[in-house]
Amino acid sequence: MSGLVLKSISKTFGGTRAVDLVNLTFGEGQLTALLGPSGCGKTTLLRMVAGLEAPSGGVILLGDRNITDLPAHRRKFGMVFQSFALFPHLTVRDNVAYSLHISGVSRSEAADRAGKLLDLVQLSAFGDRRIGQLSGGQRQRVAIARALAQEPEVFLLDEPMSALDAKLREEMQVELRLLQQRLGITTIVVTHDQREAMTMADSIVVMSNGRVEQVGPPQDIYHKPENAFVADFIGKANFFDGVTEPGGIRIGATHLVADPHFVGGSPVRVAIRPERACLDEEPGANRLPAKITFVRDLGPIREYHLETAVGRMVVEYAAGEGGKIFHVGDTTEVRLPPDALHIFPDPTAHDAL
Ligand code: ATP
């Protein structure tokens, strides 16, 4: 096998186009996160990859094999669902060994393989327990071991952490990523949690309304968003609407130095990450008078809310970064470095055309 390829995949339910002409390549041995808001089509896309849902159009290739019409049970794909879907009346070991029994593996070999898988997910000491006697994180590891029992070519996980509390979720993200890297198994994870995607993924696919908005490594998605939706969905951003003019952008009566790459007079949406705006004394373009309206001290991060001529914005400082301390009511200047400004065609102006 060499990767999984989706060509023009669509899915329509009645009048709803849940997935709309998606083209994607999932690299061999890589972990790809499908990320997007509720209802954007992530689960439907994953279910089509799994063979649990037939596409309305398009082709799915595994290496050079066309698997579009191959039934789920013949795909050799491992799947972990939100609910884990474990057998509560069986022991941990039997949950893992069960699928091996039914696929014809002898009882002793199934027990042997289940033992190795429980080792892999660090549950060897829990083999004789029943599912009801496990914590959420342990149940998730049983679900992972069970999915891996079939030695799947592709590993599919739908919101695998959603049943876990926040702290455990972060631990399991790291564990799952380390396990996936150790096994080198092609993996697709559906999530609506950007931190989860950024922690685990080699590549993130950002979706909205059944379409792919951007594909790339986590750092590219964060630092080089291709449109306003991605800039808004991944991380935090301040947004301003303006028009292009020679040498930059006009927002209300303010000219910002920038390199917009659009013809003059184009409506644009400008985004800047809170950590890229500066409350400092350094000379440079785009210094605007600012009034501090709110201060949020989050421990590792200090957040200033400002009022400026281009609108309200939030500026963030990491603790230890130094910088002057401001209080509500202080007036100062904020600097918006031209290379920190992301400039997109204004999506609302586009819709109006
Ligand atoms: P969530 O994060 O809430 O699970 P999602 O991104 O996984 O959302 P999907 O579950 O793939 O989104 O749903 C995409 C769209 O397709 C939604 O509008 C949903 O209502 C619709 N949909 C999904 N499954 C069905 C179905 N079996 N019948 C009808 N509509 C469906």
Task: Please describe what this structure looks like.
With 353 residues, this protein is an alpha+beta fold. The protein has two domains: 4-228, Rossmann fold; 237-352, Nucleic acid-binding proteins (OB fold (Dihydrolipoamide Acetyltransferase, E2P), Beta Barrel). Helix content is 25%, strand content 34%. It contains nine helices and 19 strands. The protein has helices spanning 42-50, 92-102, 107-120, 136-148, 166-183, 194-200, 218-223, 228-233, 347-352; strands at residues 4-13, 16-26, 31-35, 57-62, 65-66, 77-80, 154-158, 186-191, 203-208, 211-216, 238-245, 248-251, 254-257, 267-272, 287-297, 301-308, 311-318, 331-335, 342-345. Strands 6-7-8-3-9-10 form a six-stranded mixed sheet, with helices on both faces. It has a five-stranded antiparallel sheet with strand order 13-12-11-14-19. Strand 16 (301-308) and strand 17 form a beta hairpin. Helix 2 crosses helix 3 and helix 2 (92-102) packs parallel to helix 4 (136-148). It is elongated. The protein starts with a strand and ends with a helix. The relative contact order is 0.12. The model has no long low-confidence stretch (mean pLDDT 91). Adenosine-5'-triphosphate binds at residues 13, 16, 18, 36, 38-44, 192. This is Glycerol-3-phosphate transporter ATP-binding subunit. InterPro entries: AAA+_ATPase, ABC_SmlMolc_Importer, ABC_transporter-like_ATP-bd, ABC_transporter-like_CS, Mo/tungstate-bd_C_term_dom, NA-bd_OB-fold, P-loop_NTPase, Transp-assoc_OB_typ2.
